[in-house]
Structures are given as structure tokens and as C-alpha cells.
Amino acid sequence: MTTLTSALGRPLRLAVIGGGPGSFIGSIHRGGATLDGHFQVVAGAFSSDPERSRQAAIDLHIERGYASGAELIDAEAGRPDRPDVIAIMTPNNSHHALARQALARGFHVMCEKPLTLTAAEADDLVQAARQADRLFCVAYAYTGFPMVRQARRMIADGVLGELRMVQCEYLQGHLARVSEAETRATDWHFDPAVSGSSLILGEIGTHAWHLAQFVSGMQPSALTAEVCATAPGRQAHDYATVMTRYDNGARGMIWVTQAAAGAEHGLKFRIFGTEGGLEWHQQQPNELIYRPLDQPCQVLVKGGPGLSEAARRVSRVVIGHPEGYQEAFASLYHDLAEAVVARETGQTSLSADNAFPTVEDGADGMHFIETALRSVAEGGVWVPMR
Amino acid sequence: MTTLTSALGRPLRLAVIGGGPGSFIGSIHRGGATLDGHFQVVAGAFSSDPERSRQAAIDLHIERGYASGAELIDAEAGRPDRPDVIAIMTPNNSHHALARQALARGFHVMCEKPLTLTAAEADDLVQAARQADRLFCVAYAYTGFPMVRQARRMIADGVLGELRMVQCEYLQGHLARVSEAETRATDWHFDPAVSGSSLILGEIGTHAWHLAQFVSGMQPSALTAEVCATAPGRQAHDYATVMTRYDNGARGMIWVTQAAAGAEHGLKFRIFGTEGGLEWHQQQPNELIYRPLDQPCQVLVKGGPGLSEAARRVSRVVIGHPEGYQEAFASLYHDLAEAVVARETGQTSLSADNAFPTVEDGADGMHFIETALRSVAEGGVWVPMR
Amino acid sequence: MTTLTSALGRPLRLAVIGGGPGSFIGSIHRGGATLDGHFQVVAGAFSSDPERSRQAAIDLHIERGYASGAELIDAEAGRPDRPDVIAIMTPNNSHHALARQALARGFHVMCEKPLTLTAAEADDLVQAARQADRLFCVAYAYTGFPMVRQARRMIADGVLGELRMVQCEYLQGHLARVSEAETRATDWHFDPAVSGSSLILGEIGTHAWHLAQFVSGMQPSALTAEVCATAPGRQAHDYATVMTRYDNGARGMIWVTQAAAGAEHGLKFRIFGTEGGLEWHQQQPNELIYRPLDQPCQVLVKGGPGLSEAARRVSRVVIGHPEGYQEAFASLYHDLAEAVVARETGQTSLSADNAFPTVEDGADGMHFIETALRSVAEGGVWVPMR
Amino acid sequence: MTTLTSALGRPLRLAVIGGGPGSFIGSIHRGGATLDGHFQVVAGAFSSDPERSRQAAIDLHIERGYASGAELIDAEAGRPDRPDVIAIMTPNNSHHALARQALARGFHVMCEKPLTLTAAEADDLVQAARQADRLFCVAYAYTGFPMVRQARRMIADGVLGELRMVQCEYLQGHLARVSEAETRATDWHFDPAVSGSSLILGEIGTHAWHLAQFVSGMQPSALTAEVCATAPGRQAHDYATVMTRYDNGARGMIWVTQAAAGAEHGLKFRIFGTEGGLEWHQQQPNELIYRPLDQPCQVLVKGGPGLSEAARRVSRVVIGHPEGYQEAFASLYHDLAEAVVARETGQTSLSADNAFPTVEDGADGMHFIETALRSVAEGGVWVPMR
């Protein structure tokens, strides 16, 4: 993987909007982009205060600092050494405008999820990306784990037979207690005007929804949902369960919450087909449990025997050496880099295993949110998807 | 525990109906009844063929064999050394009549689940048991595990604060493939006239439903359900998901299936309250994961430090020595024995930790089945319980 | 398995010496003997006080109580309905004499481990058993777990190729703290005259030593040992590590302790051959980790696909229903019962999978203890076995 | 952590010797150095072929490429923008000369393990580093995991009381089969002139030895060892067990092998004291099992409640997001960077939790190897350390 950019004779250039010093997601994006040596971070906008934004760039040893994302996009667009990709990691309500502008100026885009505030905005970005003919990656980071890629490949290859059940859950505990930041809305996540119509669905529901489809390769045709606040006195949603139906008769279920006291980061899927089942847990990401029908259970491991090229190409370290969240993020940047380099060097096709989540995936997540909320509003009925 | 029956000067006497040689559940009942030395099996009816039934009794070294349950109840009722308890482990459609008869003749009853074919039959047994003033245990065996008792006690003691989420799942895989016995209905489980209106809900749905309530101490006020067959060509239900609401605003979810290829016996609950969470998995039954809010996770173990009397009284072996399904069953018989001995010796009250599931619990399971099926029939709407 | 004794027309008869009410091992032996319906406990000696012994028998609903083991053996030997087997679960220093007497009176014997106080006594019992032509089972109970039997069968069948490493560890924590019972020697385990020359080696070292051989099928040719007390102020050994060599060039290692603070009952083996490895942990006894060379790891489970008859014949409950220590004990009694019945009915051969540990295994454990202590006494040198 | 180098106004500069494109350890070092933004890689020597070395630098987007480590050190020493640190990841037999030269030219050093070929060479480097007054980090990477740091801090704080047992094992399986590269010695690891006197002790024995001391804070006073080849026909050592004694009466044990068929990367320690025990497994690195005496077991997790500053300062992502081997490596570079910056900015003391392994630790590993081999040569006797 270290020679992906050799053909260019330079690393790709990345500009970041949001994610300054002290931000968790900022260091994850920069670390993910640079880990494999594909990207160099050349510009950033970290604060609406020009002085603080500039200082942040200096502290991070990033060459060019800007006072706003809009200014960055405008200024960088005119440079001969302009960035190849703009990465957007600001609060949700600014994604649409920034991504719109970046596309309009001809940049490829990496954008945090949820993609936008509404499905309409998201559909607009889908159109804009198509018109601009630019690459657009949405940061559904869990798709970058090698064993998630392995599961996806096995299912695509028919190893499980026809799928019958798709379950995905995502349990966190950090909202088990109603916080002061929440009640005063000093945390933007709790302000619907900034974060969107459903905290839980936007924050982690879209992850679970997307992961289920990314791995299963199937799209539910209808759903019924329960979305609510379980913590006494809370306004924002902290809990959702969703039941789904697929056209082939399979059934699915999603359970997401951030109010499960003591839960850590329990993203997990279990998928069963006529010929076997798969189980993956984000907290032990280097293992994939495979249960072939009528045969002993297998534990597939990253770097171990029996893995597909889909898993190997996003693995960095040999068997038994754990890789984690940062590496999964790097795999999204890796796939994006591969696609950008292919564009720059005139290649016409990518590996079938290049699988970064796209703007369409991001838009699908917004439709999921709105469909689930419609089911709730109508008393818990089944609602078709699209 | 070995002296529970010393006051009587004899072990309790048990008669069993159903569960002859080769039957899984038969040996589990007999082993459960005798493991702690509380019961002696004195009579049995194992087959509708008088000769085979008698031979079965001889093979099992049981003194008296009968050609039918009805005959057994009649004949044993008149003996001076009559059994204290009649245990019924026949196909579901015979539970009601046999239990009715046993109660009418003054026996205490142990009965397999699902209790009956319909909620109406079940309610009738509740009335009959009350009128006869007899003890009636329903074999929800998972309630006998020490760490299930521990979880129940912790929640009752308020350790989790107010409960907010109750999830219970039960995944099996033996029906992943449609079998010949099923399509020809040579297995009574697939004949609704014998097993009841929903295979999956009767077989394991009632277990999950009851366990959630046994541990949480809360009864859902409404539910919405999806109940169906996922295996292509199957008639009988093999899959159900249920979403529940509780009066205090908590939410719940149940997922049961016997068609999850490769799944073993994945009965598991996760319960979260304002002050912490608990997780238990039947396949590692001697552990209970306790997640106190804002403190490190604890792994409570059977026989280990920090356990309640509720767990200790149904533990037989010291720390680290695994106890399993047979022992859980024995704990139901233990609690029943304790209650019978209390009656016989004129004690007026039992330990608060005596917790065998009752005829009311069995009837509640039947109401759960009918309510869930009503939700499905009405298009997946929310339906109140009772 | 329920018809093992049908040919006799009666259950086998067992007399127990030691293990009265309140004794952990007493209820385990009685439960193990009766769980499968093979044995009926007909007589017992539970105390050197005649009155207490008799009362214990009454409390346990056992027909005949005696004031001593010697009296029991003498009295029962003359009865027409005399016991088939005498089970000895008294303190270690009485095993030799009681077993000697039982053999002399023609009884088959079940005896707790360590077999005796010295290797010389043990060798004497081997001779006595041969001369008496009686069956003699030593209660190395961990050999009764289905997945231990599975491991043994796989290795015997060559699944691992030639063995290269045999590791067995057994970590307990209940002696992490020096107790009052210990310093005053009110607990017989701490009195070498009663328990033998090395507490740790007798109590659990022999288990680990035997298990390694039972599963691997190989006998070390030499060892070097470290045996000591690690708890400050303790006299008795609470820790041992042993390195072993095998004739085929394989190496082995044993680690046993009862002073590992917080450890539960961590008996575990890991065995590696040229074609794969096996791992088993007593605390998750229903799983066996199988690592075939260059292929994905498998988790074999009790009752699951791919198991041998050796495992199935000592499994009672279907897949995913945990079986534990009590059931493992029952499997020793099961194998012993099968052998006794074979004798009584004139069968000449037993199943190759009948595998109860014998008096020779018990004697080998005593030689292990003495060889290990010799290595220590000589400064930690390598000492040949036998 | 992102502002560690802000005071310098530039990232630190790193030159790397060895580890070109395709090298596993090369990308790990570069990724580790740059992940947190502390270092920029400015120069490299990747091949003894000048053209290939230059091309490698170009492919990796590294500014200056050299045909040899010696040339790099000489040339870079004279630059005004000379590197702060030289990282050496060449075969073992070149470590001593390169590190010697780097120290002589005033560079701080990061060096792979085993430090040298002999203890004498290693002692020489200790002297050289002291004389040059330069920082010297040895890449014992497992010391960088947050939960390893947590364990070390807990023990140093006395949480376990006085230590009684220190066990460390490290099981790999990639040498289960004798390879062609091995028999023809086309892999330098199998050439003692290049890799040193004991493959297994140099490759992973030193890791296990160091980790035991790093965490326990105790140094064994004597050892006895078994070191050998278990694979038939192999010359190089692939297996070692070591028993240790500590001055306070504690005992220890080490088990390392690369020939355990099917094993992955099983580095694990278990340490027990008078007040509790700790257990850590590299394959689940974000968990630390803590067993306080007489209290329930706790599972401490990276980013979770109850952690020390020692763990937090080397954690990058919030609770439940796994961090792995690459991040552990980054933590060594982080600690080294912190120390270099402190030097450059005239700070006199470092955090007590800065804990990068030093040249003295590297030398201790070489003494361990030689002492263990001496024990073997003398027939398995106990040998004092130093």
C-alpha cells in the first residue's frame, strides 16, 4: 500500500474543515489520512475566530490556516498546489453548504455523517456530486474494518446462502445520565437546529443502518420504528428499535441507544442465511465469527488463514496484532486515495473491493431517519422505504 | 440444602407423566427432581401403550408404571403413599386436561411450558389451582440459574435504579433448514393442533418473555410484534421480534428464532437502568456482567464474592465449578420442594428468594402469544397487554 | 444411557464413606452416581460418631448408616443385597486402608484423589486391585467433561499430528490469604500427616498432571520442578511450576497454585502438535478451541456438529445447554457403572471410549508428587520419571 | 497531545534506517512516529543499493534517501536541519554499530530489539548513551498499550499489595512448520550470525522478559530455563520456558514459542499479589482484568472509568473504540518525543508516567538471553541474574 501514490510522485493533498486541537474526530481524520502515507494535510479551518484558527494550524504544523471553511475552499481552489480532497468534520448543519461549495469548486469530498439535516439536502448533494463528477466519501468508519470487509465479501460470494435475518445493534452508555450541557444545550448535539431531527438516529442510527446494508448487500423495503427518549426528563431521542422487512422475505432489526448505562461502544451485527451465520463486534474488531450450517463454528481473524483479498487489502499488521478504529478510518481514506489516484492517472476502473461509502449511502441514511420518524408519528405502523 | 426434607423423615414423592427413555426432557425432569435428594420418583406414565409404559418404568427403575396420565392420577390419588407432586411433560395439547385432573385430585403440579394451547385454557388453570389451593410450578427452567436469581435480586434491591430498557433474545439454529419431519408433520411440534398457534412463541418466545419479567420485575403494558417464517417454504413461525413499552416509560425488545443458522442456545438478557446495566448469557450461565454507571464493569460469578443469598441458595458447587441446565432445573424442583415441605409441616411463609414460576406466569405467557399474534394480524400495530 | 442397568433389572448399589451433610464433595459424589439413574445409594458412613453418622443417613434418606468406613465394609460385605461399589471420600490418610479393605472384601472402588499419602501406598493399591480383580476408579473428575473426551479422541486419532507441547495450568485463589484454620491446622488439608507431603501437588497438581496425560496420551520422561509457598508466613506449598520432557522431543509445562488472588477455578490445557492445537478451559467447559494448522480456528461445542462418539456418550443435554462439574462427575460414575454392568452380565469388552481414571492413574499421580519434590530437594535438577 | 511540539514551532525530525517499502516494521515505525503529529520523517536509508534506496525514499515521499545507514548518519549530522532522532530497524547484527555511530554524532536513538547480538555489545551501548548524554529508546512496543501502562501504574501504586507471582507468555504459530527459507537460511532470522544466539529468545523472549518487569516493577534474581527446538528437524530455538525467583520470595514463569500451531500473537501476562491480580492479553489489548481479593472481578477498559493518568495519556480514542499495535508503537514515539522536546526546551523533569523502554532495558534483555542459555548449557540449573 505504500506505493499507491508513487505514480503521482507526491502524496495527495488534504484540506480539513473542523476538528481543531482537542477535537477527537479531527485527530482521527488527520491520522487516518496520513497513516498510510497517502495524504499530506496542507490546509485547515479550525475556528470561526481567525486568530484561533491560524494558531491551531501552527500548533498542528499545518501550512495554511483559514478563518472559515468557505474562505478555505475559495482560497485553495485558486492555488496551483490545491488540495485534492476537502474533508468536512463540522457540526451537521454546515455539511450541506460546505460540501456543495467544495463540489462546485471541483474538489473531491470526505464528509462526516449524518450527511445533512434533511433527506432533501442529502438528495441535493447526490445530484451535485454527480454533476460535478467528483468523488464523495461519507465517514461511515466502521466499514473500514478488515473483518467487516471480509463479512461483506463472504455474503456477496454467497457463503451464507440466501439471507434470512439481518440484525445490527449499537449500544453506548455516555448519555445514560442527563447532563447539564444537554439541558442548557451548550452541546450542539442536543440542538435539533444544528444536529438534526433525531439525535440517536443521526449519531449512531445511521451507522447501524448503513453497516447492515454494507455487509448484507440488501436494502430493506419497509420498516416500523420506536424512537424515543428513555432517560427521565430528556428531550432528545436516546433510543430506537427498528424492525425491517426485505423483498426476499428476510427480516431485520436494529437497536441503537446511547443511554444504556455502562455500555461502551457496542456496535455489532449478526446476519443469518440459509447456509450459515456471521457475527461481528466492533469492540473485538479483528475477529469474525462464522457459523457454517451443520459444521463447527469458525473464528476468522484479521491476518489469519482463509481471508479474502477484500480483508487483506485493508489490513496493515500481521496476524494477532490488533488494528482499531484509527486504522478503520485510514481504510476509508485509503480507498478514497486509490480512487483519486485512479482519476489523476487516467485509470478507468477500481478494484471491486474498493468500498468507501458514498454520498448515496449518506443520503440513504437521511431517508432512513425520516422514514423511521414517520413510522413513529403514525403510531408505529409499517412504512415503505422510498 | 440436603436437609430440606429431614423434617418429613422421607423424600417427597413425584409421579411423572411423559418423558420416557430417550426423551431429553424426561431425564432432565427426573434428574432435576432427584439431584438434591428432595424427591423420589415413584410412578410414571410414559406411553399410551400399556406394555411400553410399564417396560419404561422398569427400565428406569421406577416402581409403578401406568398406561396413561389419567390412569396414573386416578390410581395414585387413592394410595396412602400417594405422590406429593405430579410432573407433566407431555405434548402441549394435553397439559390442560392433565393439570386440571391433578389439581382436582389434590396434587401439586409441575408442568412444562407453554402451559396450554390457549390463554383461555391457561386462565382456567389459574382458577383451578386457586380453588384447589395447590402449588403449581411451570418449567421456565432458566429462572433457576444462580446468576439469573442474582440479577433479579439486584434489580429488586434497586441496584440498577429505575429500569429504562429490557432486552431479551433467544437464538437457536436447529430449524435453519426445513426438515422432512416438519413437512410431513411427523414431529408434533409442527402440528398447531398439538403445539399451539405459534411454534416459535410457544417453544422459546414464552421463555424469553417470562425471563424478561422474572428478572426485571416489570410487566410490559403494550407491544408490537413481527412473527413469521423466515425459512423458505416453512409454514410454522420460526422468527419473532417484539417491541414493548412499560408504564414507567421504559422500552423493551424481544428477539427469538430457531432458524438462525449456526446459533446454539443463545438466550440472553440485557437490562439497563438509571444506575447501571446487567447482562447474562445462558451459554456462560455462571457469569453475570454488571456495569455500574461510571464505574468499571464487574463480572459476578456463581460462588464468588458479592453475591446475594438469592444466588447462593440455588448454587451447589464452589466458585469456578460450572453448573448448567440440569442444575437450573433442579433449582425449580428445589423451590417447589421447599414450598411443599412448608405446607406439609405447617409453615406459613417461604423465603422471599423462593421463586419458582407459577401457573400465573404460565398463563401470562399464553396471553403474550395471543397479544403478539393480534398485533401481527392487525398490521403491526401496538396492542395493550390485557 | 438410561437403560444401562436395564439388563440387571435393578440400579447398581453404592455405599459411601465420608461426605456427610454439608460436605461439598459428598453431594457431588451422590449426585454424580444417581444423576443418570445408574446407582442407588444404599449405605453410608458419615462420621466417627455413631449417632451423628446414623442421623446423617436418615437426613439423606439413605437406608443404612454406619459409624465408620471399616464397619460399613464389614457389615455390607455379608449382605445378600451388598453394594456393588464403595466410594471413599474421606481425608487422604485413610484412603489406603479403606480401599485395601474394600478390595479385600470384593468391592469395586471409587476413591478420591490424591490416591494415598505416598507412592509406595499407591503402588500397593495397584497390586491389591489387580489381585482382587476389582474395578477401581480415581475421581479425577475433569476427565468426565465431554470436550475433554473430545480432545483426547482427536489426539488419539492423530488430528494434531505429532505432539510438540503440552501445557496445563490450574489457578485457584482461595489460599491467597493465610487463614486462621491454616495456621492452627484446624483444617486437615494443612496437616501433612493427613493430606500428604505437598498440599498444592496433592490437591490440584495431580489433577493437572493427570489431565495432561489423559488428553495427550503421552507420559513425560523427565521433569524439573519449583514447589513452594508464596504467601508470606505459609508453611504448606501453594505454588508449583513443572517443566517436562517427553521421549519424542516434545516439551511440557504445568503451573498450579491456590494462592493466585482472584483466580477462580482456572484449570486449562493447551496442547500443540505438528498439525494443530487444542485449548480447553474448565470454566467454559462446553467449548473446545481447535486450531488446525493454516486454517481458521474452530470452536467445537458440546452437542454441536463435528463431535466424536467419545464426547457424545458423556453428553446429556442438547447443544448450547451447559453441562458442568456435577455432570462431569456423573460421567465417571457412568463409565464405572458401564464397566460394572459389563462384569455382572459377562461382557468381555468395553467401549474404547470408556475412560474412567484407574488406580494406576492414581498411583502415577503419587509418583509425580514424589519426583517433583525430589527435583526441588536436589536444587531444581531434571529428574527422570520412574 | 497535539500540542506537544508547539513550543518548538516545528515537528521533530526523524531519520529511519531500514524498513523500506514492503517492510512490516518500517511502516509501523513511520506510522508510529507520525500518528500523533510529533515527528516528520525527513531522511531514510532503505537498501544497500544506492539506487533502490533513493527510489524507496521517493516512493515514500521522504525527502532525502541514502545508500546506507552510516552514510545517512554522517551526512545528516552536518545539516542545520538535522534529524532529532535516528530510528534503526535493520537486522540485529547491525544495531550496535549504527547506534554507536548515531550516539557519537549526537543523535537520540530509537532502536529495534533485540538490542544487539551479545550482552557485551549491549553494555557498550549503555555506556555510549550515557557518555553522549543522549536519549535511547528500545522498541519494546507492547509497553505502549494503555492498559499495560494502567497495570504498571496500579502495581506501582500498591493496588496488588506485595507481588507473589509474575507470569508472562507469548505464543505464536508461524514457525509451526519448518520452512524452506529456514532450512536454506534465506531468511536472516535463522542465521545466528545475523539474528543472535537464540531465535526464540531474541525475537519474542526479550519482549516477554521485559514486559514482565515493566509491569511488575521487579527484577528476577535467578532463573532456570529450557530452550530448544520442538519442530522436528529445526536447528533454531522455537520454544522456551523459564522459571524465575525474586528477592521478595515471589516466583515467576515465562513461556514463549513461535511453533504453537494455530496460535496467533498470544502475548499475555498474569500477575498476582497479596491483594489482587491482573491479567492482560495483547489480542484484546483494550481490556485489563483486575481481580481484587475477595471482591468481584473488574474489567477495566481503555477510555473507561477508573483509569489512571498513565493510561489516559497514551489513549487517543474514546471508550470502546479499539486501539491496536500501531497506536502502541506511537506511544513509544510519543514518550520519546516528549523527552526530546523537554531537552530542547530546557525542561528538567518529565512526567512520572513517561515510560519509554531504555537502552538499559535493551541490555537487560541481552543478559536475560545469555543467562537462560547458560542455565540450559549447565543442565537446567538455577543461575543468578547478573
TrEMBL record, chains A, B, C, D:
GO molecular function annotation: nucleotide binding
Classification via Pfam families: GFO_IDH_MocA, GFO_IDH_MocA_C3
InterPro entries from the UniProt entry: Gfo/Idh/MocA-like_OxRdtase_N, Gfo/Idh/MocA_oxidoreduct, GFO_IDH_MocA-like_dom, NAD(P)-bd_dom_sf
Record domain GFO/IDH/MocA-like oxidoreductase: where: 148-279
Recorded superkingdom: Bacteria
UniProt domain Gfo/Idh/MocA-like oxidoreductase N-terminal: residue ranges: 13-140
PANTHER family: CONSERVED EXPRESSED OXIDOREDUCTASE (EUROFUNG), OXIDOREDUCTASE
Descriptive protein name: Gfo/Idh/MocA family oxidoreductase
Species annotation: Natronospirillum operosum
Organism placement in taxonomy: Bacteria, Pseudomonadati, Pseudomonadota, Gammaproteobacteria, Oceanospirillales
